[in-house]
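Example record

Each entry pairs one chain with its bound ligand, adenosine-3',5'-cyclic-monophosphate.
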Amino acid sequence: MNSDNLLARVPLFENLGREDVDKIFKAARRRNYPKNQVILFEDDHGDALYVVATGQVKVVLTGENGREVILSVLGEGDFFGEMSLIDDEPRSAHVIAMEDCELLVLLRDDFLRCLKEAPDMSVGLLRAMSQRLRRADDKIGNLVLLDVGARVARLILQLADDQGGDTINRSIPHNTMAQMIGSSRETVSRTFRDLSEKGIIEITRETIVISDREGLKQAAGIK
Ligand code: CMP
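C-alpha cells for the complex follow.
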C-alpha cells in the first residue's frame, strides 16, 4: 500500500496534510507477520505503535485456564499499541495476527514526535479512542444486560455495519465470534441455526446475509 492509499484508509491520518503523512511514512518501518503470530504480548513494555496495512488482528485477553476473550478485531487502516506509549504502562492486551498481515511500525519517539509536530493527529487519535471506549462500554452493557441470543444478533448487526451493508463474509469462525461476545461456539452455532430457520439471516458457505433486518434488531433487543 503506498502513502496515498494508506492516507485514504487510516482515520488516524485523515486530517493530516501531505507533508505530515510523508513524515510519518519516512519514520515508519513495514513488517510482515504470519497468521497466528503474537505481535504484542500483554504486560510487555510498549515501544511502538502499529498500523494495519493489510490483514486482520485480534486484541485478546487470556485467563489462567487459557480461555480467551476478544476485545476487538482490527483491520486495514486501524492502529494499535498506542496505549502504552501514551500512559507508559505495560501492554494492556495481546495482539495476534488472525491472517497474514503487513503492518506499519512507528517507534515510540517517532510517534510522540509526530503527535507534537502534527496536532491534527492528536484529534484523530482522540476520536478513535473515544469510539473504542464506546464499543467497550457497549460490550460491558451487553454482557451484563443481554442474553446470549441477543448478543449474537447484535454481533451480526455490528459485523454487517463494519462491512458496510447486509452481508458478512464468513472469514470469522464461530469460536472467534463466541470469544467476541463471551459465549461458546456451540451456542453461537445454535443461535445462527435458529435465526436462519426464522428467515432472519441466510447462511451460505461464504457469507451470512441479513434478510430481515427488523427481525434481527428485534432479536438483538433494539427497538
Ligand atoms: P497497548 O496497551 O499499548 O497494547 C495493546 C493494544 O491493544 C492497546 O495498546 C490498544 O491499541 C489495543 N486495545 C486494547 N483494548 C482495546 C479495545 N477495547 N478495543 C480496541 N483496541 C484495544
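The mean pLDDT is 90.
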